[in-house]
Amino acid sequence: MYKVGICGHFGWGKDFADGQTDKTRAVYRALSKALGEENITTLDTCGWKSNPAAMFLNCRKLLKNCENVIMMPAQGGVKIFPALYELFNRKLNRRLHYVVVGGWLPEKLKSNPALYECISRLDKVYVELQPMEDALHELGLDNVIYLPNFRETNSLRPEELVYTSCEPYRLCTFSRVTPQKGIEKAIDAVRYANNALGRTVYTLDIYGKVAPEYADEFSRLCKGFEPYITYKGLADTAKSTQELKSCFALLFPTLYSGEGLAGTVIDAFAAGVPVIATDWNYNRYIIRNGKDGIVYDPNTEGLLGKILVDAAGYPHKLNDMKKNCLNRAAHFEADQAVKILLKELEKEAVTV
User: Fold this and answer.
1) Least enclosed by CB within 10 Å: which of 9, 13, 163, 334?
2) Averaged in consecutive runs of 10 residues, what is the pLDDT profile of the chain (352 residues)?
3) CB 124 within 8 A of CB 97
């Protein structure tokens, strides 16, 4: 019998660049390292809707063969997988764990009593932000625990930090390329700053997978890019710190409704790069305003561009944040975060 079975969107052999897949794979790698690959098995939910009957049978098989099952459903699967595993588990009595990706669960449970009851019966629910744990406790859930989002990022050493000392200052985005993640806001802000200052003070490198539904529109945008704006395509996540370390700042003007602890912020911190982000969802709890980045009001029109204009006059303010970024990145290291999960996995199931 396996110690742990992980049910989630692995997308093995396919090129996915999203938080759901990244975190599912990160949990697998961290547990394999800690427990040994021979004690871990997986069930890939990629494309499960095309053959739900086969997926349901595989879920029961996973549960039968594992002491612990970790499920990592996206918003579309959260109504299915927890209830399914709970149903199958009534005779098997395995321990059920739900590792949440994103920051949407508290609001989801407020409006769905049936889902709330199902989630309340799981052994543990792991959320990636302390305010999420607090919010779920306020709803009456006592099986919730804070498990920071984590990445295997190979953080820079302090002596490897790259300080920007002359124009143009390199900016970047490092997330899915969608309007919800604020890509157009970032482009507009860089254009505003350069036009306001009358020269190319900033360049912008755009990294990330373009959302399929946005591909045509983004292609049209690319045709109108100035020389200082470049789409760089997908970056190798294993080399993210090397890609990012020469950046002056990472722009994260997200308005994505399900935003939790975004992996792009961890990547930036590991590279010693301050993050300029919207005060949206939980960003203020992750990015310490004035210490390792800038958090601004997304409702103030044009504010990001004005922040860039101001930063150009005082570049030392962002450069001075770089060491703080590395200190913050240490909080999200895989080896530390996974200890919380390992402690729960060692517990035995309690027969009711």
Assistant:
1) 13
2) 94 73 89 94 89 92 96 85 92 93 88 93 92 93 91 85 94 94 97 98 96 95 97 84 94 88 88 96 91 96 97 96 94 85 80 44
3) yes
